[in-house]
Model the fold of this input.
Amino acid sequence: MVQTRSLIDEQGLRTDGRTTDELRNVKIQVGIVKNADGSAYIEFGKNRIIAAVYGPREVHPKHMAQPDRCVLRCRYHMSPFSTDTRKNPAPSRREVEISKVMREALEPAVMLEDYPRAAIDVFVEVLQADGGSRCAGITAASVALADAGINMRDIVSACAAGKVDGKIVLDINDVEDKEGSADMPLAYLPHLERVTLLQLDGILNQEEFNECLDKALQGCKMIYEIQRKALIQKYFGDEQELKEES
Amino acid sequence: MSSSRRSTIIVEHLRRQQMREAISNSKRLDGRDLDEMRPLEIELGIIGKADGSSRVRLGNSEVVAGVKVETGEPFEGLENKGALILSAEVLPTASPYIEPGPPDEETIELARVVDRGVRESEMVDLDKLALIPGKVVYTIFVDCSIINYDGNLFDASSYAVVSALMSSKLPVFEVQEGEAVVNTGKKMDPPLTTIPVSITAVKIGDSVILDPTAEEEACMDARITITTNSEGKFAALQKGSTGSFTIEQIKRAAEIARIKGEEVRTKIKELTNNGH
Done:
């Protein structure tokens, strides 16, 4: 994490022209994988990520089945062409860890007890990575779960905040992730007001820590609106959206 | 994705109820206060062949960490820095539920969270460990072996790694005629800048407790591990397990991690006799 150039200019704008409170462009499309029970495609800055949900379905191997609830399984994977230098397609330790925290971020939202002895599989494929791919992946995966008609307590919205050039900023991009001084991804249940994923890389004092947490939270609330619109768009079309706004 | 240390430990229904009840009355089954850590013991230099080593006991959890130093190629993008590589293995000695084999996701998470604390706090000044920039650098391996599992491996392993590094002596390598790297046979102190300390809290019901035992981990709703540096700043954090926290609980946990972290740091300094 070496500071090599200024990441915020005199006007307070960042390398990609955003202010410190602005998200990158986020676009979500629902139901793009035909064979899946539910799916979503997200563009989050330069991130291009597909999430597909299969299930509830029979568990294989069978010994994994739970008598009183469903097992949620999650795979986060990056395509070999998703990064600057080719990524080995075999799952890395980083991907294993992200798969785990992603599952733990989604699980509190899913009503597992409604599907005993079954499995729900969530596959998140990063086609192009741009920093913040775990947050974008969680955001897409929870939309895909909703699209699959899985009973849920809430949706999961995820966004990161961090510290760049001494300032706390929303939604860290690739350059800021590599050259900035801290990155804090957060996943949140917007209605239940619960944090389901939180990580931190980099140095923050107590005050900055709280500010960063609050900023990431604001980001999650913005992401939630986009998720909601995408789902309404798929199931009710433009008409409903217009009605909502008027 | 499959079996793990925690999910295979079975706590009887009554015992679980007893634990939740006790904790909601601010008591724990082993008699500790909610924010009380178990006794911490550190033994140094137990492995003569390692460049630094320690055995840490946190209650009944026991971890041995060893430092081995070699020369090697730098990581891509970090050509002028030494390489630090951290691993963890939960040995089959650690519990009746563990079988030998490749690391499961819990063990991978463990190693990565301990690594994050050491790396993000910049405990080891890797800029001072390049030999021929872009070609040859010091490579520091810190490997942890978990000998016995009774909960809170995150903190036990983190203290083992940190104390092993603090007590280590690195071989001095020299560059001769611009290309040959030789071991001079001399030893030096590692370039350390800070002492990262992790504090793990878990949520059971509505209470947050520190330093959970295996039994408590089997009943937890959610876990949070927070690492602070010597200045009391936050360097790394990881929420784990399938439950959730409120924002207030996280802010409170962060404060506790700062205060308790300083207590543990003083203890580690004392036990390693290092005024660093």
Notes: Residues 156 and 189 of chain A are 5 Å apart (CA to CA). Helices of chain A lie at 93-106, 133-147, 174-179, 206-245.
